[in-house]
Specification:
The complex is a heterodimer of chains A (290) and B (87).
Chain A: E1 2-6, H1 10-13, H2 16-29, E2 32-35, H3 45-51, H4 53-69, E3 74-76, H5 79-91, H6 95-105, E4 118-120, H7 121-125, H8 128-136, E5 146-149, H9 153-156, H10 159-162, H11 172-179, E6 183-185, H12 200-203, H13 205-221, E7 226-229, H14 232-247, E8 257-259, H15 260-267
Parallel strand pairs in A: 1-2, 1-3, 3-4, 5-6, 5-7, 7-8
Helix pairs in contact in A: 2-15, 3-4, 4-5, 13-14
Chain B: H1 2-15, H2 21-33, H3 41-49, H4 63-75, H5 78-86
Helix pairs in contact in B: 2-5
The chains are: A alpha/beta (290), B mainly alpha (87).
Chain lengths: 290, 87
């Protein structure tokens, strides 16, 4: 089993612990991650999709063409990258659109035939053989931890394109948390956005932080020790956003956030520093209980 | 879908010259570097601290990839539009 690891922007350039943890986990699982050499920003669906859909589609197709050269699906750890690349793959299912895109790509020496597409890391991990292996490798009990799952908007919607679970009552990551020995907690407005998507963080950061504040307070009220999520961009907003809220005196009790691959790495006994947990702004205080 | 309609409306607004400065900054960053956020020495050090390559194997490591991005944004007309709106 192998995938081409599409890094995006936030993971490699702001939170490299997310990239490191994913690489470590996949090495442990015996799944090869190829470098998607020369990949660019996906490009981000909010800003770039809102400005110019044609340019957005061309850049996405170029990224997909690199993975296709390697004859493997691209794999992402960011819901924004997932939104762009999966939607581009979907849109390019229309032959005349694919032809128009390839007419431009040919001028930079590239071509995309849609032989390979994109997988979210959660889709990769929840394959039965992969998940069974993860469970067989568990070394560190997570019992006693209460975890609030944040799915993130683009992981679930548009549901007709995503096609992997209910966008209103998702459960896959909650089940993963349970299997790893921790307790998933239900909280108010669980499916609420982290606040960053759609260009809101860059365009109106106060508004973005209000979403984050509500999300954190709701998870806190439900007794969560931490938040697990499947997205580098949500990670950025939920971690950096909380630090900003603390600096503004608007938040009293922050909650640490963790990418699903980091949580699995912990359960497999990997060192928190190797998983980059020390690079978070909000400290992982619960680690002393494990 | 409603979001598709909103996105097309936003494309029309951009065509007509409307864009927020912070969003133009993101677009400009992409045109110049291939990523939507900057990469500096402090970020390189962060990468080294978790034992991944100091520069990621993206467009930042491959100048020929950046040439492709640059040409693509010219061919699509995106580069011109962003520069015009930046003034």
């Amino acid at each position: 089993m192998k995938y081409s690891f599409f890094l995006g922007c936030i993971a490699p350039l702001r939170y490299p612990g997310l990239e490191a943890a994913t690489r470590l986990l996949f090495k442990e699982l015996g799944i090869e991650l190829l470098d998607l050499k020369g990949a660019s920003c996906c490009p981000a669906p909010g800003v770039f999709g809102s400005f110019d859909l044609w340019n957005w589609l061309l850049v996405a197709a170029r990224n997909l063409s690199i993975a296709e050269e390697q004859n493997v699906d691209a794999m992402v750890i960011c819901n924004g990258c997932y939104a762009t690349l999966q939607e581009a793959y979907h849109l390019l299912g229309k032959p005349e659109r694919l032809e128009a895109v390839n007419k431009v790509l040919s001028q930079i020496g590239r071509n995309y035939q849609r032989r390979t597409g994109v997988k979210h890391v959660v889709e990769v991990l929840m394959q039965k053989e992969v998940w069974d292996k993860i469970l067989s490798l568990k070394k560190r009990p997570l019992g006693g931890l209460k975890i609030a799952v944040h799915y993130g908007c683009h992981y679930l919607k548009p549901s007709k394109v995503r096609g992997h679970e209910s966008p209103e009552t998702p459960y896959h990551i909650d089940n993963m948390v349970k299997d790893l020995g921790a307790e998933p907690v239900e909280y108010v407005d669980k499916l609420m956005c982290c606040g960053a998507g759609g260009g809101v963080r860059s365009g109106n950061s106060d508004e973005a932080r209000q979403f984050t504040l509500t999300k954190i307070e709701n998870a806190r009220k439900a007794g969560a020790d931490l938040i697990v999520h499947p997205c580098a961009f949500c990670h950025f907003q939920l971690d950096t956003g909380q630090q900003e809220l603390l600096d503004q005196g608007l938040l009293k009790e922050p909650l640490p956030v963790i990418l699903i691959t980091q949580l699995i790495g912990l359960a497999l006994g990997m060192k928190p520093e190797a998983l980059g947990l020390n690079l978070n702004k909000i400290p992982h205080n619960y680690l002393s209980r494990l | 879908m409603i979001t598709d309609i909103v996105r097309v409306a936003r494309n029309i607004a951009f065509e007509e010259g409307h864009a927020k400065k912070p969003h133009l900054y993101v677009a400009h960053m992409f045109i110049n570097t291939g990523h939507s956020i900057k990469f500096a020495d402090e970020h390189r050090k962060l990468r080294e601290s978790v034992n991944v390559s100091s520069v990621p194997p993206t467009v930042l490591s491959y100048p020929e990839a950046m040439e492709e991005i640059s040409k693509l944004t010219e061919l699509s007309g995106f580069k011109k539009k962003v520069l015009e709106r930046e003034g």
